[in-house]
């Protein structure tokens, strides 16, 4: 899980007014799936690969069939019942089959696309990635248009409030920091960093001194006295 946390941004997301980590939910379900459903008599090495546009896993499998799995055609099959029971007891897994539903639900919020589950002698999960995608609307029990719009605006405001304060604190310590380095520190996408810096500049809270390559960020008097 630490490998996934290191290489994927933790995008801002609200669910029922609470911030949840889409990245950590996805990481937990993928790692749990790999360990619980592996065919341990096979010498095939399990893989977890992160590329720019996708993350995928490959794992030895005792296939009950072949083809693509969706929430609609899912037929839960306990391949390692004792391991699955252990994971449920330590709180790392829920009921059988819930991982597929969770990954379809939260991957859509994380990247805007559905994951792919492919059953065969090698079980494959493909998670599409998009650093620039940002789902800026909280979800909850109410789904009417007015509530969605309120949630969307609240989510944007919370995202800005939290990350503007963090950015000002980071710039105070590291005025020469690059936007790419800010992305890693804030664990948000580069596009989100650019939007964030534009908001700070447009509101007169920071200014750029010098060139993009050799310059630095300066916090203005307004930014220094901000109570974000």
Automatic annotation (TrEMBL):
Gene3D superfamilies: 3.30.565.60, Winged helix-like DNA-binding domain superfamily/Winged helix DNA-binding domain (1.10.10.10). Residues 166-209 form the HTH marR-type domain. It comes from the Bacteria. Coiled coil: none annotated. Pfam families: HATPase_c_4 (PF13749), MarR (PF01047). SUPFAM superfamilies: Winged helix' DNA-binding domain. One of its GO terms (molecular function) is DNA-binding transcription factor activity. PANTHER family: GLPR-RELATED TRANSCRIPTIONAL REPRESSOR, SCHLAFEN ALBA-2 DOMAIN-CONTAINING PROTEIN. This is MarR family protein. It comes from Eisenbergiella tayi.
């Amino acid at each position: 899980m630490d490998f996934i946390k290191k290489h994927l941004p933790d995008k801002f997301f609200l669910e029922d007014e609470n911030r949840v980590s889409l990245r950590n939910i996805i990481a937990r379900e993928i790692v749990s799936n790999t360990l619980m459903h592996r065919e341990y008599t096979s010498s095939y090495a399990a893989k977890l690969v992160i590329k720019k546009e996708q993350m995928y896993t490959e794992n030895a499998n005792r296939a009950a069939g072949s083809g693509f799995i969706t929430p609609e055609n899912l037929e839960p099959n306990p391949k390692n019942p004792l391991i699955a029971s252990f994971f449920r007891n330590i709180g790392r897994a829920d009921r059988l089959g819930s991982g597929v539903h969770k990954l379809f639900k939260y991957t859509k919020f994380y990247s805007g696309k559905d994951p792919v589950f492919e059953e065969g002698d090698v079980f494959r999960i493909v998670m599409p990635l998009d650093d620039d995608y940002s789902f800026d609307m909280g979800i909850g029990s109410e789904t009417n248009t007015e509530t969605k719009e309120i949630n969307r605006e609240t989510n944007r405001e919370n995202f800005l409030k939290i990350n503007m304060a963090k950015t000002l604190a980071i710039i105070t310590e590291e005025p020469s920091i690059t936007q790419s380095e800010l992305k890693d520190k804030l664990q948000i996408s580069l596009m989100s960093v650019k939007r964030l810096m534009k908001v700070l500049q447009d509101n007169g809270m920071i200014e750029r001194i010098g060139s993009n390559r050799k310059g630095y960020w300066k916090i203005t008097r307004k930014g220094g006295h901000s109570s974000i």
